Amino acid sequence: MTGLYRAAVLLCTLFFLTASVSLDAYIGTRKLLRIRAKYGPFVAARFKYLDELVESLKDADPERKLEEVNDFWNGVRYGSDRKVWGKKDYWATPFEFLLKDRGDCEDYVIAKYFTLKDLGMDPKKLYFVYVRVKGKKRPHMVLAYYEKPDAEPLILDSINYRIFPASRRRDIVPVYTFNGELLERFSTHSRDGLKEKNRKVRRKWEDLVQRMKRNEP
């Protein structure tokens, strides 16, 4: 979890301080060296750790991929968009999230989604889910994984670090689900009355994807 993430990053920092970068397939040697030159060895170590994690999970089963990716990104610290970006609502790319080493609920979901997608998991099985957390006013987002279309989803969350079937997460109430194309009501899959909200969410998504294409080091 968080402690393991910090310990691994520290070890990777020592590696960067004492040795050259080995060959990397996910992020790549050149990119890691540019990150180190621009942001320093500690930041580069975070990306090195992610690179090694993804490399180790390429042939893993889906359950292990879900667990390891969920644990890694939950190791990043929470920070509101106001504090991190000076904006009311900002969807950070996985690169921006790890670079800042902090972000809010959407950033955890986005990072987990794209990492799992890069690991070969079918994005059609992964859904962004807007939820209400019981006892809290602030909206929240989680990532849902459906092994099959009619299966009960598994919930990857940044509040509860353990992955549970949706029925065991009685502390959250799903409201909307989003798959990168359409926003729907979670319970009915209806899009009635959501045209404007869907348009806003899609604009955020399209902006996110464009920034992912151009803001890599």
Q: What are the salient characteristics of this protein?
A:
217 residues; alpha+beta; C8orf32 fold; 2 domains; six-stranded antiparallel beta sheet; 8 helices; 48% helix; globular
Structural commentary:
- The protein is an alpha+beta fold and 217 residues long.
- It folds into 2 domains: 1-59; 79-214, C8orf32 fold.
- Helix content is 48%, strand content 16%.
- It has helices at 2-18, 29-39, 41-57, 62-74, 81-85, 94-100, 105-118, 195-214, and strands at 77-78, 102-103, 126-133, 139-145, 154-156, 164-165, 172-178, 183-185.
- The strands form 2 sheets. A 6-stranded antiparallel beta sheet has the order 6-5-4-3-7-8.
- A hairpin with a 5-residue loop joins strand 3 (126-133) and strand 4 (139-145).
- Helix 1 (2-18) packs across helix 3, helix 3 (41-57) runs antiparallel to helix 4 (62-74) and helix 4 packs antiparallel against helix 7 (105-118).
- The longest helix has 20 residues, at 195-214.
- The two termini are 27 Å apart.
What's the short story on this structure?
This protein is an alpha+beta fold and 217 residues long.
Show the helix and strand layout:
Blueprint: H1 2-18, H2 29-39, H3 41-57, H4 62-74, E1 77-78, H5 81-85, H6 94-100, E2 102-103, H7 105-118, E3 126-133, E4 139-145, E5 154-156, E6 164-165, E7 172-178, E8 183-185, H8 195-214
Parallel strand pairs: 1-2
Antiparallel strand pairs: 3-4, 3-7, 4-5, 5-6, 7-8
Helix pairs in contact: 1-3, 2-3, 3-4, 4-7
